[in-house]
């Protein structure tokens, strides 16, 4: 049973990590290099994530600087950012691409908050599915006489405790991201 609990925790932690990675790509009012994580650049016939072909930094709260490792890909970086759904207008300065992050309007802020809450709900559904699978496996172990009824009840309590912990982490992250987005 201990292996099942450890496996359940590991799966739930991976779910949280995936949620965290997707929330990091949601734009806030400040320039954040993570918003470009989903941008794919054409590089010698292969689509690659931007962070694998360039260094992305934020020298101030309104600017992103993308410095390619190979200067020949600078036009592709500019095109990929322009074609993305981020609404940025990149500027090619010869050795780097500069992106001025426009301030968010109230309507866009509300849309982004909804997006984050939707991501959170998807992560919580995944957690509930993991919990259901773990509880089902505990029941199967009881049927095979590997666990007693008390062991199953204890295992289900442990699984629920893990679910509650990770759900609380998700809720806290949503709250902090919402504050970042709504910050003027």
Shape field: elongated
Whole-number radius of gyration? Answer: 22 Å
Q: Which structural class should the secondary elements be placed in?
A: alpha+beta
Largest sheet entry: 4 strands, antiparallel
Unreliable residue stretches: none
Measured between the Cα atoms of the first and last residue, the distance is 49 Å
Mean pLDDT: 91
Short overview:
By secondary structure, the chain is α+β, with helices and mostly antiparallel strands. It is 57% helix and 15% strand.
Q: Can you put this structure into words, describing what you see?
A:
The protein has 184 residues and is α+β, with helices and mostly antiparallel strands. 57% of the residues lie in helices and 15% in strands. The protein is built from four helices and six strands, in the order αββββαββαα. It has helices at residues 2-24, 74-83, 106-143, 149-182; strands at 40-43, 46-49, 54-60, 63-68, 91-92, 97-100. The strands form two sheets. It has a four-stranded antiparallel sheet with strand order 3-4-6-5, with helices on one face. A hairpin with a 4-residue loop joins strand 5 and strand 6 (97-100). It is elongated, with a radius of gyration of 22 Å. The model has no long low-confidence stretch (mean pLDDT 91).
